[in-house]
């Protein structure tokens, strides 16, 4: 076992696993440090609805063996209305998916060190040259990648990504059996991924039901500690209380039971990132402040950021003089904005406006959406300002003004 590598990656999630997979396949010496033990990886505490679309499956050659259920449609719900769109997708078994990434990269030579809790960077002449983990152990590399998610010990120490954590997203998910996926008065959720906008269930966020086969589904709640949450939150309610409230009041759960051991919870952060790289270093995946678009799909964003980091590292390490300087690794920032989260400012602004709207406005939005073409919805979700304006009503001006006021004050 060596202590010197081309690339060190902290975190073996979708972003870290994909970066390791790409780099190992190109012949680089890669070491991945993962907090969890090999026997427990990935633990049930890992958060993810693990829903994705065919573009992601094909782009990253994700095998059918890690899919719980292939879906046909996406459904958006408000308290009293719903919108259905034909959008083929796949709900992944997240544990199998993450283990597949490990196995793929190990087959190409990547080394994984489990039970390795990263604590801080090893610095030399003001630049990161390695990682300290498990107290006093150290490993060194030409490039270090932080893929640890919200903990982000390396990115924080290097003051990368603007990690102020002002808007924390908190989520919990259970898997249920005995679901009624087609009760009267609701959309049929058979072979469907559903997202619900309803402050009674998720103030300042959204809830979901992803059908995983037969009468089973992934069910969760996520809210952001934003203005929408502060205005709509129930006194004393925790994230668990909101999910239980939904289960207690929705007929789809009347005979449903939680599947033992199938619990996922976690957090992320929602804010604009600044730089995501510096000398010898890149931050990827959920370490980078997350943008939560209308259709979700965080797995795709994580894997694309991992691939962009691998492309950048490959270029830097094959440079005539092996240039891993901040200016060279800034190519990752450019790729992130172009390929991972294009028009990130517009999309984040739209997201903040969405979560400030009332339940009545969510009902109106779902009625309005039926008038728009799929291309118009895609344009709005993609951050097209004109398409976003076309979806607004006169009463949205107050939401626009309050969002803009907070936006510019920050």
TrEMBL record:
Where does the Digeranylgeranylglycerophospholipid reductase catalytic domain lie?
Answer: 191-250
Decide whether keyword Lipid biosynthesis is in the record.
yes
Signal sequence region = none
**Organism classification:** Archaea, Methanobacteriati, Methanobacteriota, Stenosarchaea group, Halobacteria
Q: Which PANTHER family match?
A: DIGERANYLGERANYLGLYCEROPHOSPHOLIPID REDUCTASE, GERANYLGERANYL DIPHOSPHATE REDUCTASE
Q: Which GO terms describe its biological process?
A: phospholipid biosynthetic process
GO terms, molecular function: oxidoreductase activity
Q: Which residues cross the membrane?
A: none
Pfam families reported in the protein's UniProt record: FAD_oxidored, GGR_cat
Gene3D superfamilies in UniProt: FAD/NAD(P)-binding domain
Alphabetically sorted, this entry's keywords are: FAD, Flavoprotein, Lipid biosynthesis, Lipid metabolism, Oxidoreductase, Phospholipid biosynthesis, Phospholipid metabolism
Superkingdom: Archaea
Under what name is this protein listed?
FAD-dependent oxidoreductase
